[in-house]
Fold this sequence. Notes:
- It holds the Pfam family NCTSP_N.
- Residues 210-553 form the Non-contractile tail sheath TIM barrel domain.
- It comes from Qipengyuania polymorpha.
- This is DUF2460 domain-containing protein.
- Residues 17-205 form the Non-contractile tail sheath N-terminal domain.
- By secondary structure, the chain is α+β, with helices and mostly antiparallel strands.
- Helix content is 20%, strand content 31%.
- Strands 17-18-19-22-23-24-25-26 form an eight-stranded parallel beta barrel, surrounded by five helices. A six-stranded antiparallel beta sheet has the order 4-5-15-7-11-10, covered by helices on one side.
- The chain is globular and about 105 Å long.
Amino acid sequence: MAFWLASKRRKQHSDWIPRFDPRFWTVNFPRPMMASVVSTSHNAMRVDCEFHYEGELAGLIWESEDTLDHPLLAYETRRDYAHTVLSFRWRSSDLVALDQPHGPTLTIEGRDASGTERAWYVRLWNYAEGSPTDAVVTLPFSQLQSGYVLPGETVHPADIDRMFISLAPQGYVEGSTERLSTLVTAWAEVSDLLCEGDHAMLEVGDIMLPAHGEQMATAYDDSFNQTPARLLRQVEGLGYRGRIVHYVGMSHYYRLAGNVERVQYGGQLCGPCEAWHADFFARAVGMGFAPITSLSFELLAQHCPNWWKQRDWSWNFAETGWDPPSALLSPLIGDAMTFLQSIAAQFVALMEAAGAEVLFQIGEPWWWVQPDTRAPCIFDGPSRTEWGDDLVAITDMREPMNDAQKLLLDRAGEALANATSALAQSVRDAATGEAEILLLAFTPTVLDPEMPELYRANMPSDWAYPAFDRLQLEDYDWLTAGADAARRTALDFTDQRLGYPIEKQDYFSGFVLDPADAHEFWPLIDTALDEARERGVTQRFVWALPQVSRDGYTRLPRYEEDEVNAFDDVAYPLALGRDASVSPEFSTSVAVTSSGHERRNALWSDARMRYDVGPGVRSQAEMRVLIDFFRARYGPARGFRLRDPYDYSSNGGDGEPTAQDELIGTGDGLAADFQLCRNYGEQKRPITRPEAGSILVSVDGVPASGWSHLGKGIIRFDAPPAAGTEIRAGFRFDVPVRFAEDRLDVSGATFAAGEAPSVPLIEIREAS
């Protein structure tokens, strides 16, 4: 399917929004405090905060440059606020009030008239009318002055990067690392927001792509600082419809215990998370989306009780390589599982309150494997107690496993299955109606070929259909590495082990962690969506929205039509012999400089062949065959095969093929597909129409088995050839061609006089 990576708008639709539109504000803050912002109307928003320390401070932020939205939906960059006036009503509770030291202050970051970077601090109380917790604030940017009292230093309004309003808790002490005596839950509301004067409106992208059949995945850890309205506007505008998988993350949804060092054992959502998700679910339902809440067995390590964490045989914690790291919860630890079940039930309540179906994903539940040692983390306290005599050491999953070790891995798989089953049941119990449970598995880890027995622990047989309503699979590590053979093998294994029918399977395609990989990885991601569609997978998701927006990934709709076959896989019906004329053709631009020197640029990397097969027509009967064949092809509308009399074999053009003839690739241990080709010095010519039965393949000079021809000259190995091996092939082949003209001129008189007709053909460039 067509897509492109958009870097900016180029004549796409745009609209206008008021400057300071509530949907486009963000929040930021230091952990462990939490805050969220939601837009409550076209001119209002609300910020909810939870403070734990005296020195914590949140910011409600407006950016002059939109770096968060997709380029086709972003608002314009405008740093000049001269002669602009912003006004709004401010209300707050349990924050430092407007009239107090450290009360809400507008910090403006930009440059002064000389271009020097600097910041100004505008006390809102100096521009407010009303009470310290309920006032109308008017900010004329060309007259603003910084400082605690007026008059102060004049703000330069013409070159501002961003501005933010500070939010401090009652009891705030600047720079303090002391804990507050109790958790402070606070809020601020901005309403009647109005921008007037110069540049009071901003141009904003306003595309609305037709539905293309794909669905979106988001994550709260990635989007907690934005408004739900902003996120969902992008999802809809980019053509995604139906379901949205929303991973609640591992670090921002929970409330901390009183010591601020760990989560509450019973599991409690923090207030900002509840407010954000209530708005998210309600907006999603109102826009026709069906949100799927996703919860994993993962918690930010610094907030996870140590005795909840998985451990390896050497008693090392199971922690990821993220910064800061996350920890994996043990399926055998009852309190950890109770925590997840409580959180799940609270999200069920939020979904139902918003009128959403209860769709719940258990996201990547697994026993962690240490990435450096490949030690499985199945040896926490309960496992060492409960598994008793079955407990044996496993320190490297790459090593061959004996029967006792396999039995232990099966026991671990049984424990994982029990934990996921209990979590699923807790969701069903919490729902007042039906609940659909989906399970997500990451096959590159669960089915890593280097650890062939790991599936026993991480893909337990008790997950087999119909344990869950839908099975969801993602394989982005293999996808972006080009490990197509591993991807196919994993799909086959999963089908055999778990048995979910294709209509009960979902697929996740993504993701691009490093933007430097965007142009390499997004074509693979896009192609994988098409492949899943062709397999019959109806629920396909792109992971994830922040990367889609960052890289400008834009997927276009596929219009279902009766496909016209532009190529008939039939051979030209007449023998050519050596009478046909053959003309290799290049395209080269030649520019002559004023000094007479030439600058030549080859526009094609390979020659395009032209033929004239008219001299091969030798009789009236053959002429009738040619005319019938021309009509059957609708002239140049349909392609066909032509055997080039001078170059039809990999062995010197006309010799008997051998398995050593042409180098078609070098193994890397991952790739399993190789394109047949003819090599002419430095030029490589893809061969898309080999002769069936003529193909011979060798690997490092040894005739190869375990491969098949997929068509279009693609050779697929059952297992990827080892890194560094030479892949060679021999074959006979035809050239895909079409008639060059819409008209075939034949004169009986000239033909009878021995003059051959002209029947020009031109080679077709086929995509393999």
